[in-house]
Write a structure and sequence with these properties.
This protein is of the alpha/beta class. It is 28% helix and 22% strand. The chain contains 5 helices and 12 strands. The protein has helices spanning 2-31, 64-76, 94-105, 122-132, 206-211, and strands spanning 37-42, 50-54, 80-83, 110-112, 134-136, 140-145, 150-155, 170-173, 190-193, 220-224, 227-231, 248-253. The strands form 2 sheets. The chain has a 6-stranded mixed sheet with strand order 1-12-2-3-4-5. A 6-stranded mixed sheet has the order 6-7-8-9-11-10, with no helix packed on it. The chain is globular.
């Protein structure tokens, strides 16, 4: 009798675990990667500039998610769009990639920095950006003009040191969060980056402990030295999997 009861109990436990695993798998592989969140950062309101930042597109082919992404960006009505790098996957369709960025350029001026996945095919990425009207910042500074003021957008190169001719009101963008250590110039208002995917499969406390030595700031806002840094989850990934790190757009008000 006890053996039968034990077998039945273990069978129920096993079935419960299988159900939990199936639900987590469905959520992580199907639901969360197709979701979209928006983070708002109100840095000031005196310049009349709204910047939309996103990173880590990792596009293979253009599909419904990218349609929704474009629609959401249009609804957010940015004055400028900034992309934090990593447009590619190993199987990227470059015509589809150009279609995506052309659609963004019809909303607002688009600026981009280089990501590590872009580097090996950088000439093709540059061609896509050129054809779609995207301005690549690879160690460059441009002025973003608003209704009542302006800021200086500084695009860090992927692996070199950089300083800027601008002397104030700096928005620093790099693909790697730790790239701010290679920046020499006036203190930025904030530093934006991606690359980490917010941990991609994020387990509270555990992910931070395991990855802290490599990524002191895995996701969200923090300090790197004296600099204020925000690391976005990005919107895509090299594997269609996310858990507690949903695709993210960042809206900055200056």
């Amino acid at each position: 009798m006890e053996v039968v009861f034990l077998k039945g109990f273990l069978g129920k436990i096993s079935m419960s675990l299988l159900i939990v695993i199936a639900v987590l798998a469905f959520y992580s592989f199907v639901l969360e990667p197709e979701s979209l969140t928006v983070k708002y950062l109100k840095l000031s309101k005196d310049k009349g500039i709204r910047v939309l930042f996103f990173s880590d597109l990792h596009m293979s082919r253009f599909y419904g998610f990218h349609e929704r992404l474009i629609k959401k960006i249009r609804e957010l009505n940015p004055d400028y769009i900034v992309f934090g790098g990593d447009a590619l996957k190993p199987n990227t369709n470059f015509d589809d990639l150009e279609r995506f960025f052309t659609s963004l350029s019809e909303i607002a001026p688009v600026y981009a920095v280089v990501g590590n996945w872009d580097f090996d095919k950088l000439s093709r990425v540059k061609a896509v950006y050129r054809n779609s009207g995207v301005h690549l910042l690879d160690g460059d500074t441009v002025k973003l003009i608003g209704d009542t003021g302006c800021i200086n957008l500084v695009g860090m190169p992927l692996s070199q040191k950089y300083t800027t001719p601008a002397d104030k009101d700096i928005l620093l963008v790099s693909h790697y969060p730790h790239a701010v250590a290679r920046y020499y110039g006036p203190d930025p208002i904030i530093c934006l980056s991606g690359h980490t995917h917010g941990g991609q499969f994020y387990i509270p406390l555990v992910s931070n402990i395991i990855l802290k030595s490599k990524y002191p700031i895995l996701k969200g806002e923090g300090k790197f030295g004296a600099y204020r840094v925000f690391v976005t989850n990005g919107v895509g990934s090299w594997l269609h999997l996310r858990f507690l790190a949903p695709p993210q757009l960042v809206v900055l008000e200056f």
